[in-house]
Design goal:
Elements lengths: L2 H10 L8 H35 L4 H28 L2 H20 L4 H29 L2 H31 L6 H4 L1 H15 L13 H20 L11 H21 L9 H4 L2 H20 L3 H7 L5 H7 L1 H21 L3 H18 L8 H27 L7 H41 L25 H35 L10
Length: about 525
């Protein structure tokens, strides 16, 4: 009897089909391809956004929210996907996530205005949540923790390739006859190919059991996080509301009340979206807090590098992508090297400590940037930022997976990914707001010094404007805006460095446990 027919027979008999090494590798390639498509959707658009904002008449706030919409949907749905992974067939859920992602990508590519683009990004984010959570759950199901370091390194390498390679690819696409819409279309064939590979090679027997879906928890998670991020994005901005206002009290107070209600609900339902018994475990709790901090630096600060090179340094989208290459090299090295060393020696905490320390130094170095900083200083900062991220991101998930039962791997992995995405969404919103305010302040100061506006900001040649439609600005004002943007960008990296200290403190208190050799 052939190997394939034997596997089918075992599955029909109700036994868990045993995947050989070749099947595992092929299925992992399919999962990695889906994971790459999801990560690419986050990073490829960052380099294209200045062009997209110019084409669709967007502002800096729109820029922030096109990024945040996908990250928020990803964050809000990741724990839902993770819980579903523990209740339903992981293979079919992964395929459903791929189809959702494809639908969102197609809609984004055909967007004709900012609201349509944001809606499409939400759908994309829901699919990305599925691909992220299911990918981690599949890895945790078919590979023992001791061997998982190697595969986590592959995941980290793919993340590195998408994180820094995405901007390069996005720049090439934007500058080509294809145009910015293909930055959304490009992920569709990759996702569909991964779906076919997963269908052919991944064999996971799902054991049916009584299902309870925590819909109340899902709604509370989504609404509480969304309201807080909306408040952060608009508070203190002209035309919206101030910190001391009824809107602030209503939104912040309402979010805190919803979070309190969420904790109450999750402690009483049989299958919680965010299981308190898991996230209360020392390793998981510390890893989650560290992941929030990492998310701010990984998504928040990284999202603005391409914008900095295009706006402040007048680089083309392609050149801006090339200028971010040091980050991909550092991330690729950090991910693959740490994964191989962990699988070989079984020690993982040292890489987390070194990664967190290096990351703080790299972000602080990037925090010194201005509009005319020597590129090699920026390259060094980006490289070591990539190394630090490569040492930390997947290895925090590995530490958590090693600490829970196999039946909880989907939920535990998605919890870490959820809070990392929340940190990323919050980072984009908060750092974007900081950047916008600093740019407006510097522009007003420059215009006032040039006697183009009065000291009170009246007479308004772009006074305090956050528009990213640079092509409509007078040349003198455009130069002032570009200089102000470059000088303001360092602020967000210095803030990210301060937040990154939290990750180091948490990692120092994580207790290292030997990696299991069996699933």
């Amino acid at each position: 009897m052939s190997e394939q027919s034997t596997a089918v027979t075992r599955e029909r008999q109700g036994d868990q089909p045993q995947m050989d090494q070749k099947e595992v590798l092929r299925s992992i390639v399919g999962v990695l391809a889906a994971f790459f498509a999801a990560m690419l959707a986050t990073t490829i658009v960052s380099i294209a956004l200045p062009t997209i904002m110019d084409a669709l008449n967007g502002t800096q706030t729109d820029f922030n929210w096109v990024l945040t919409a996908a990250l928020l949907a990803n964050a809000a749905t990741t724990p839902i996907w993770g819980k579903l992974a523990d209740l339903f067939d992981k293979k079919r859920l992964l395929q459903l996530g791929i189809l959702t992602f494809v639908a969102g990508s197609l809609l984004a590519g055909f967007a004709i205005n900012i609201p349509m683009l944001m809606s499409a990004r939400v759908i994309q984010g829901i699919g990305m949540g599925g691909l992220t959570a299911m990918g981690m759950a599949v890895i945790g199901t078919v590979i023992p923790p001791r061997e998982r370091g190697r595969y986590s390194g592959y995941f980290g390498g793919v993340m590195a390739l998408a994180t820094a390679g995405g901007p390069l690819l996005g720049g090439v696409i934007v500058d080509s006859p294809l145009g910015w819409r293909w930055t959304f279309f490009i992920g569709v064939p990759i996702a569909l190919i991964s779906m076919w590979m997963i269908h052919k090679t991944l064999h996971i027997k799902h054991v049916a059991r009584k299902v309870y879906i925590d819909w109340a928890g899902a709604v509370l998670v989504t609404v509480s996080v969304s309201v807080l991020l909306i408040w952060v994005s608009y508070v203190g901005k002209a035309g919206y509301f101030e910190f001391n206002s009824w809107q602030t009290y209503a939104m912040v107070g309402g979010s805190l009340a919803l979070i309190a209600l969420l904790i109450w609900v999750e402690g009483r339902v049989p299958e919680p979206i965010i299981p308190l018994r898991i996230i209360a475990m020392r390793t998981t709790a510390l890893s989650i807090i560290a992941s929030v901090s990492i998310g701010v630096a990984m998504f928040g600060s990284g999202a603005f590098l391409g914008q900095y090179f295009q706006v402040a340094r007048e680089a083309s989208p392609t050149l801006a992508g090339v200028m971010t290459l040091p980050m991909i090299l550092g991330n690729l090295f950090g991910s693959v090297f740490s994964g191989q060393m962990i699988s070989r020696h079984g020690r993982w905490k040292i890489f987390l400590v070194v990664g967190a320390s290096v990351n703080i130094g790299a972000l602080a170095l990037l925090g010194t940037m201005s509009h005319d900083t020597n590129y090699w200083i920026l390259a060094a900062g980006m490289f070591f930022n990539g190394v630090g991220m490569g040492f930390m991101v997947q290895n925090l998930v590995l530490a958590v997976q090693n600490n829970v039962k196999v039946t909880d791997i989907g939920t535990a992995s998605s919890s870490v990914a959820f809070f990392r995405s929340v940190g990323g969404a919050a980072g984009v919103a908060v750092l974007g707001a900081m950047l916008s305010d600093k740019v407006s302040s510097l522009v007003i100061h420059a215009l006032t010094a040039a006697h183009l506006i009065s000291p009170d900001g009246s007479s308004g040649v772009a006074s305090g404007s956050t528009s990213l439609d640079l092509s409509t600005m007078p040349p003198a004002v455009r130069v002032m805006y570009e200089t102000a943007f470059g000088d303001a960008t360092g602020v967000i990296f210095m803030a990210s460095a301060a937040v990154a200290v939290v990750a180091l403190v948490c990692i120092l208190f994580i207790k290292e446990a030997p990696l299991r050799r069996t699933v």
